[in-house]
């Protein structure tokens, strides 16, 4: 081998060696994803009447299932926008019973979350009611009145659609942003003329005899709560997410197989008379499935929210819902 050939061969060997070191170095720089987190943080709500969650929490179903994986479960009671804010800040990993309007608006605002299953559907358990002496006998008579509702939720969507159905514009009345519990008190104290409430507040406020029902949400809105999770958590721990939904499905099935025991337990936890719980329970559908019809309704809700200024008009709502809903984790 002449000197020139030897130099070329030597250079090739050096390049190969350096390339090998470079590739190895790149490999070690890849982010190391833990197979399992030490803790899963989950938000929950006991309202309006979240039987499967109550059953699961009281019987420690998630704790026992995740303990087998060496994982601790921590629960955080949150509702509405506070839930999506916690998801955005990574304070929680998954959200049980997040209302679909809040989820849509949050996703449209850039929060990387996904709906992975339905939690409950309950349009019959939402109603627009008025103070008995407010001079309001129908939705059309709300013109010029003061109405309390929690803005940015399905309750506000229900109100606007009820007004539209009656030929009334939202600008024709004063809409006050108020948490539901405060709104219920406000209508009883005659501080507002009407409110939109979910059960059990709806039933309790009507039972006072001081209010009348103007319209239920049935036929107006989807009236759905969902289970959602952070997108990065889904990507990192898909098997744990599937296990989570499997345990949730078991809790739901247990509540069906042991209906009265589940309702007795619910009445105790939420401090409600068992007769009231028995009356409310048929208004709720806790099945997990999300089908094409459900997705179509979510798209229609997104269109409505866009038309009414809740989300950016430049957003493609078809793509928005496609990115928001992922049912591949369902058991």
Question: Could you explain the architecture of this structure?
Answer:
Helices cover 47% and strands 18% of the residues. By secondary structure, it is an alpha/beta fold. It folds into 2 domains: 39-122 and 223-324, D-Maltodextrin-Binding Protein, domain 2, CATH 3.40.190; 124-216, Periplasmic binding protein-like II (D-Maltodextrin-Binding Protein, domain 2, 3-Layer(aba) Sandwich), CATH 3.40.190.10. The strands form 2 sheets. Strands 2-1-3-10-4 form a 5-stranded mixed sheet, sandwiched between helices. The model is unreliable at 1-8 and 10-33 (pLDDT under 50).
Might you state the CATH topology name of the largest domain?
D-Maltodextrin-Binding Protein, domain 2
| CATH homologous superfamily identity of the largest domain | Periplasmic binding protein-like II
Which series of helices and strands comes N to C?
A: HEHHEHEHEEEHEHEHEEHHHHHH
CATH architecture of the largest domain: 3-Layer(aba) Sandwich
Number of helices: 14
Structural class: alpha/beta
| Estimated radius of gyration | 26 Å
What characteristic shape results from the CA principal axes?
A: globular
Question: What is the average of the pLDDT values?
Answer: 90
Number of domains: 2
User: How many angstroms separate the termini?
Assistant: 67 Å
The strand order across the widest sheet is: 2-1-3-10-4
What's the helical proportion of residues?
Answer: 40-55%
- Which CATH class of the largest domain applies here? Alpha Beta
The residue ranges in which pLDDT falls below 50 over 5 or more consecutive positions are 1-8, 10-33
- Work out the strand percent: 15-25%
Q: How many strands, what sense, and barrel or not for the largest sheet?
A: 5 strands, mixed
Total strands: the figure is 10
